[in-house]
Amino acid sequence: MIFSRGWLPGLTACLLSCSPLLTSASSSHKQQCKAIPGTPDWPSPASWKRLNESLAGRLLQPPPPGAVCHPGQPTYDAGECPNLLADWSKLDYHHTNPVSTYWNNWSNDTCLPYPGYPCSGQGYPLFVINATTARHVQLGVRFAKKHNIRLVVKNTGHDFIGRSSAPNSLSIWVHSLKDWKYHGEGFRPKRCKTTLPGTYLTAGSGSQMWDIYTRLDKMNQTIVGGGGKTVALGGYLTGGGHSLLSPYYGMAADHVVEIEAVTPLGEVITANSCQNQDIFWAILGGGGSTFAIPTLFTLKTHPTPRLSHLNILIITPLPNTSSIIFPLQAYITSQFPSLSTSGLSGYAFLLPPSTPFPLFPNITNGIGGFFMSCVVLQSSPSSFPQDILSLWDPVLSHINTTFPLSANNFTTLTIPTSYPSFLAYFAAHHDTTPAGTNILPGGRLLDAPALTRNLTALSETYSSLSRGPQPASSIIAAHLVSGPGVHTHPNRFKTSLLPSWRTSYLHVAIIGGIALTRVVFGESFPPLNETAKSEAYARVLGKDEIIKQLAPDTGAYMNEASPIEEKGWQQRLWGKNYDRLKRIKRTVDPTDVFWCTPCVGNERWKQVGDRLCRV
Ligand SMILES: Cc1cc2nc3c(=O)[nH]c(=O)nc-3n(C[C@H](O)[C@H](O)[C@H](O)COP(=O)(O)OP(=O)(O)OC[C@H]3O[C@@H](n4cnc5c(N)ncnc54)[C@H](O)[C@@H]3O)c2cc1C
Ligand SMILES: *[C@@H]1O[C@H](CO)[C@@H](O)[C@H](O)[C@H]1NC(C)=O
Ligand SMILES: *[C@@H]1O[C@H](CO)[C@@H](O)[C@H](O)[C@H]1NC(C)=O
Ligand SMILES: *[C@@H]1O[C@H](CO)[C@@H](O)[C@H](O)[C@H]1NC(C)=O
Ligand SMILES: *[C@@H]1O[C@H](CO)[C@@H](O)[C@H](O)[C@H]1NC(C)=O
Ligand SMILES: *[C@@H]1O[C@H](CO)[C@@H](O)[C@H](O)[C@H]1NC(C)=O
Ligand SMILES: *[C@@H]1O[C@H](CO)[C@@H](O)[C@H](O)[C@H]1NC(C)=O
Ligand SMILES: *[C@@H]1O[C@H](CO)[C@@H](O)[C@H](O)[C@H]1NC(C)=O
Ligand SMILES: *[C@@H]1O[C@H](CO)[C@@H](O)[C@H](O)[C@H]1NC(C)=O
Ligand SMILES: *[C@@H]1O[C@H](CO)[C@@H](O)[C@H](O)[C@H]1NC(C)=O
Ligand SMILES: *[C@@H]1O[C@H](CO)[C@@H](O)[C@H](O)[C@H]1NC(C)=O
Ligand SMILES: *[C@@H]1O[C@H](CO)[C@@H](O)[C@H](O)[C@H]1NC(C)=O
448: closest CA among 575, 334, 310? Predict the structure, then answer.
């Protein structure tokens, strides 16, 4: 049972390309490939049993979730399959399963819940530790290190770049690390001399946005957190974490003052600005599953703000308004640096001509234009809606004179709403992107020069990006999530995230289509079709290259960037911090217990079929 799936294809692939090395695996100290079932270094059933006992029975051997839809699989269940199919596209499903990921391709499409498709489960981990304590994590890391087993860390499985699943691996599932302690009157990090003023939260790295927002709201507090309800602290904070509140308060990672983590050597450490400073810096922005497995984060909280929200739509029903629509979008986005400095943040969508309008299904005659869901922090209830409308006034009057709306058949709609707390805002506007598809993300950060220096170039960029295979595959998401709070945060040198976050305003993300009136992040492609997959790769590379012309050196947000490892991906994701990050990686993880891609210091290994082997 233990060895029943996955190992044969891997062995075959390795025999084809690394067979001279395989024979030396048992004798050499430095094995050439990570162990897989059937190789001499793979642990015996008795070893797995002892591991399970040391974990008080928390070792799982989960079947692939899609197996319930496949006759012949041990867990086939004709009654359960329709429920799974209904859940597959929901963001709320995948985090409850030990191995499921939100985006199918990262388990290599090896057991989709669709009858008629293959189901081997070969892309999923073989064993999973359902950790609830740092001790469980430690036992898992030590076991993987000792037995040369490929290790992965899964939290919720949201990852856009495929780091939370791998074949022939032991996975440490940190979803149930949910400790919680609120510090209402300051916090003193271990070994630091002074108590930091303010309010803090110590939470398990499996804690998820919606739960944190609702629990903190009872204290009238919130954190700088993300737009997805079920995103967890683990992947979010290690990537840097952008938020609608970032332009005011900084990146999420800037708020962390202490981390408890299990190192690749299997030690439980506390890292902060007074001890283990290097690993503290590396974890905050250097990426998940690379330097350590954080079990607890302590982060600063803020009094929950009142928010003014505005849906602003500039729409046209005309099928071809190219000559106006792209210059209009260029003008509006050129105003983002000053709008951000005045307190605006939000998520904008640039819709080329002939694109059905998403999010507002009642607008049946709107094709193309501009849409933004944006907020400002309200100073008092009476400042609404003037606070947010007056920010837009000069922009809209400029549009009136420069692109006469009536003459060009554009309509402007402004729909303001006021929310008494961040939670109230979030309950109405959280991300509802459907899951369960194959997507490949892409995008880059844009700074003020890229947005303001040359509006002709900006307009031409939007026009070039719109030339996708179908209109809906050419929407651009323009996240206005950076600004003064990120640029000047006092902790900005205590985190390792891409330095250009500190000068950028916009995180531009590629949108691949519209589903169920929602935009779909990234380029999608159908399963098990190599041609379609290569085409998606080509589209992402092509669009990334077009955006890059505007800002050759800013790079991209690692958690939502293209995972394609073309030349220079290390610089694209970490900029000048990369060299120090790699030195820290070599120090804390000399034998590469943690490996993922695209991740810091992964250059010494590559995937060979379903195995991980030395380069
Ligand atoms: C619907 C949706 C909305 C999003 N909104 C935002 C947003 O508003 N802002 C933003 O910045 N990002 C956003 N993201 C991106 C999000 O930050 C990343 O997908 C992130 O990696 C998710 O982290 P996770 O722990 O939930 O997921 P996972 O896929 O489980 O983990 C992601 C990565 O982190 C690692 N990891 C997780 N926990 C740990 C841990 N405890 N120790 C070591 N490694 C760990 C995993 O190994 C993996 O490498 C969004 C994503 C989705 C799908
Ligand atoms: C681990 O032990 C528990 C409790 O004894 C058992 O239910 C579970 O199946 C075991 N896991 C594996 C992988 O054998
Ligand atoms: C799909 O997943 C496989 C296996 O994890 C990986 O090798 C491949 O690069 C992925 N492709 C895309 C387009 O995401
Ligand atoms: C994992 O552990 C949590 C916490 O103990 C428990 O609620 C959950 O049922 C476990 N999941 C599985 C699949 O064993
Ligand atoms: C939260 O704010 C409300 C309204 O201002 C107030 O009535 C309540 O006492 C506050 N709660 C806490 C825990 O401070
Ligand atoms: C739309 O108009 C532009 C010029 O304004 C032209 O280049 C383009 O080919 C037209 N597109 C379509 C689909 O008609
Ligand atoms: C369209 O629907 C939204 C709610 O989804 C509503 O707020 C908006 O006012 C409607 N717009 C029009 C033009 O009816
Ligand atoms: C723009 O012009 C329209 C008339 O075409 C007018 O109703 C509207 O008030 C103007 N808006 C601004 C902000 O000037
Ligand atoms: C806008 O609509 C009016 C009336 O339908 C029409 O006369 C005019 O030519 C249109 N403008 C453009 C730019 O198509
Ligand atoms: C602005 O960009 C356009 C298009 O790329 C280019 O032709 C033009 O020379 C640029 N203008 C300046 C002042 O650089
Ligand atoms: C695979 O994708 C290509 C390109 O999108 C498409 O032309 C082809 O029909 C697809 N093949 C199958 C079997 O669906
Ligand atoms: C993904 O599956 C294909 C077969 O469909 C296999 O050739 C490839 O090695 C697998 N990749 C991984 C990373 O498991």
Answer: 334
Q: Could you say which ligand is closest to the alpha carbon of residue 523?
A: 3
CA distance 513 to 255: 34
Strands (E), 275-422: 293-303, 307-315, 345-356, 367-377, 411-419
Which residue range is the domain that position 225 belongs to? Answer: 180-303
Residue of 415, 429, 432 with the most ligand 7 atoms within 8 Å of its CB, for mutation: 415
Helices and strands (H and E) in the chain: how many: 18, 22
Rounded distance from Cα 331 to ligand 8 centre (Å):
17
Q: What is the pLDDT of residue 469?
A: 56
* Distance (Å) from CA 168 to ligand 5 centroid: 51
The Å distance, Cα 359 to ligand 7 centre, comes to 10
Q: Is 320 in the pocket of ligand 6 (CB under 6 A)?
A: yes
CA distance 176 to 174: 5
DSSP 311-338: EEEEE---S--HHHHHHHHHHHHHTHHH
Is the CB of 533 inside a 6 Å radius of any atom of ligand 3?
A: yes
Could you give the CA distance from residue 605 to residue 593 in angstroms, rounded to a whole number?
Answer: 11
Same domain for 190 and 166:
no
577 located within any domain: no
Q: What pLDDT is recorded for position 518? A: 63
Measured between alpha carbons, how far is 69 from 67 in angstroms, rounded to an integer? 5
Q: How many structural domains comprise the chain?
A: 3
For a substitution probing ligand 9, which of 405, 409, 411 has the most ligand atoms within 8 Å of its CB?
409
pLDDT digit string (tens) for 393-445?
999 999 999 988 778 888 899 999 999 999 999 999 998 888 999 999 999 99
The DSSP 8-state label assigned to residue 503 in this structure reads T
Return the residue whose CA atom lies nearest to atom 4 of ligand 4.
Answer: 176
Evaluate whether 202 touches 298 at the Cβ level (below 8 Å): yes
Q: Whose CA is nearest to atom 6 of ligand 11?
A: 532
- Are residues 243 and 193 located together in one domain of the fold? yes
Residue 586 belongs to some domain of the structure: no
CB neighbours of residue 201 within 10 Å: 24
Do 167 and 192 belong together in one domain?
no
pLDDT for 318-356, tens place per residue? 888 889 999 999 999 999 999 999 999 999 999 888 787
Ligand 6 atom, smallest distance to 354 CA: 13
Q: What is the CATH number of the domain that holds 316?
A: 3.40.462.20
How close is the Cα of 113 to the center of ligand 3, in Å? 18
Least confident range of 59-68, 371-380, 463-472? 463-472
Residue 587 Cβ contacting ligand 6 at under 6 Å: no
* CA distances for 438 relative to 44, 85, 520, angstroms: 35, 15, 11
